[in-house]
């Protein structure tokens, strides 16, 4: 283990007390050569510092800090950089610093990430402009709607629900597999979607799942389609394109109300759902009043921030479905699943991700999802905190004084003094039926124009 600064100070104190360097070296972690080195350093500079071990970085520390600040600025601007962009920018900085063209390798990048522990690699989620336009006012309105629904009775975690739909996708993207070393081209059979399948999932804040509902394409479905589904009381219906619509959602509200009467002793319920237009119709209000359901709609395009199903459950649910689909396709040696098998796979994934309350190994993700989103227990600070983090792209602090806008950072490698303004050009030039090249246009724009008397 290398000597610490305390070891060096103790050795220097003994030498100043009259001991010889050789005597100190025999009973100290420092070697004799190191003692003489630190004696010379203290004599010349008046202090002792311990440098970093190993080779010096290609880019000086202060320039690396500027590069880190640029990475933070790009993330705050909604344009997180990739590895190749960092290498290009670092190469430009090094070339400018060294005075000759230089490039950096992947080894430098690995060392750069090790030196700066606040940097790591993440998979960037692509968000549309609408999803980036959630407002504070919309979040606060949603919170007070929740408060209004909960204060009318002795509301508990078992009375707050979240419902949403997700699709059953059997088409997987490219991914890494285990293959024989030296294989030039490894391929796998494509999983094709011959039909669309929508899954309606709902869960209470205490972890109690509502039986799922499946929407198949067409006007009818086979009587045996649910025979192998392992979820008790699972439901199925059909629409022309297997998407939810207002009338079908009203029917689901009635089924949810009947389930609530049987399982919850007719207690009221607060149902949180997104702002999709296919969820509510003019008939929804009488149904909700009849069954004691209070609807709370999330702000538009905010499900990635405030919906527990999206935040904590659907990703795991989709992964379980993908694994089950792959296993079934391999066993059947085909690329398309029958509808009955698809519902069986979805039911198995549902039981794995939405276990019933009281199960020995119950999934805490449901409760954590409601808590994280601030839905239950009700927490306006948590809601606003998620919105604030999303607005700065999850960067908690970025206080570097030199951070500029993303356009300027992309154009300039380092911050330079502003250039002195020359003669101001006019934006338009009178051609007078003559032809101009680009250079002639700029030259004519700076010529003084005779003012009309």
From TrEMBL:
<dbReference type="InterPro" id="IPR006600">
    <property type="entry name" value="HTH_CenpB_DNA-bd_dom"/>
</dbReference>
<keyword id="KW-0238">DNA-binding</keyword>
<dbReference type="GO" id="GO:0003677">
    <property type="term" value="F:DNA binding"/>
</dbReference>
<dbReference type="InterPro" id="IPR004875">
    <property type="entry name" value="DDE_SF_endonuclease_dom"/>
</dbReference>
<protein>
    <recommendedName>
        <fullName>HTH CENPB-type domain-containing protein</fullName>
    </recommendedName>
</protein>
<dbReference type="InterPro" id="IPR050863">
    <property type="entry name" value="CenT-Element_Derived"/>
</dbReference>
<feature type="domain" description="HTH CENPB-type">
    <location>
        <begin position="51"/>
        <end position="122"/>
    </location>
</feature>
<dbReference type="InterPro" id="IPR009057">
    <property type="entry name" value="Homeodomain-like_sf"/>
</dbReference>
<dbReference type="Pfam" id="PF03184">
    <property type="entry name" value="DDE_1"/>
</dbReference>
<dbReference type="Pfam" id="PF03221">
    <property type="entry name" value="HTH_Tnp_Tc5"/>
</dbReference>
<dbReference type="InterPro" id="IPR036397">
    <property type="entry name" value="RNaseH_sf"/>
</dbReference>
<dbReference type="GO" id="GO:0005634">
    <property type="term" value="C:nucleus"/>
</dbReference>
């Amino acid at each position: 283990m290398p000597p610490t600064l305390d070891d060096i100070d103790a050795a220097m104190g003994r030498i100043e007390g009259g001991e010889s360097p050789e005597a100190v070296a025999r009973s100290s972690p420092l070697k004799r050569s190191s003692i003489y080195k630190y004696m010379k350093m203290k004599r010349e500079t008046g202090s002792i510092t311990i440098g970093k071990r190993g080779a010096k970085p290609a880019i000086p520390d202060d320039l690396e800090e500027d590069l880190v600040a640029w990475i933070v600025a790009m993330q705050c601007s909604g344009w997180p950089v990739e590895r190749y962009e960092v290498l290009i920018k670092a190469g430009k900085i090094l070339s400018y610093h060294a005075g000759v063209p230089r490039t950096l390798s992947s080894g430098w990048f690995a060392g750069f990430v090790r030196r700066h522990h606040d940097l790591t690699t993440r998979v960037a989620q692509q968000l549309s402009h609408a999803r980036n336009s959630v407002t504070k006012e919309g979040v606060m309105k949603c919170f007070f709607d929740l408060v209004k629904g909960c204060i009318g009775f002795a509301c508990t975690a078992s009375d707050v629900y979240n419902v949403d739909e997700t699709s059953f996708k059997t088409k997987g993207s490219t991914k890494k597999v285990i293959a024989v070393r030296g294989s030039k081209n490894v391929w796998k059979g494509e999983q094709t979607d011959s039909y669309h399948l929508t899954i309606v999932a709902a869960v209470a804040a205490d972890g109690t799942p509502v039986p799922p509902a499946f929407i198949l394409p067409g006007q009818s479905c086979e009587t045996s389609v649910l025979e192998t589904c392992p979820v008790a009381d699972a439901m199925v219906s059909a629409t022309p394109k297997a998407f939810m619509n207002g009338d079908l959602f009203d029917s689901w509200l009635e089924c949810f109300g009947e389930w609530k009467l049987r399982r919850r002793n007719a207690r009221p319920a607060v149902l949180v759902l997104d702002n999709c237009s296919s969820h509510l119709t003019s008939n929804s209000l009488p149904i909700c009043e009849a069954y004691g359901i209070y609807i709370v709609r999330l702000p538009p395009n905010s499900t990635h921030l405030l919906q527990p199903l999206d935040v904590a459950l659907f990703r795991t649910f989709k992964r379980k479905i993908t694994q089950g689909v792959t296993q079934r396709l391999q066993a059947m040696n085909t690329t398309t699943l029958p509808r009955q098998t698809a519902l069986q796979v979805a039911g198995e994934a549902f039981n794995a991700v939405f276990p019933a309350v009281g199960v020995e190994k119950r999934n805490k993700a449901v409760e954590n999802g409601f808590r994280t989103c601030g839905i239950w227990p009700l927490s306006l600070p948590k809601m606003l905190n998620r919105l604030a983090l999303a607005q700065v792209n999850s960067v908690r602090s970025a206080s570097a004084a030199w951070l500029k806008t993303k356009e300027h950072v992309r154009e300039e490698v380092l911050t330079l003094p502003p250039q002195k303004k020359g003669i101001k050009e006019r934006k338009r030039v009178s051609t007078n039926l003559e032809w101009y090249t680009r250079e002639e246009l700029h030259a004519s724009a700076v010529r003084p124009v005779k003012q009309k008397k």
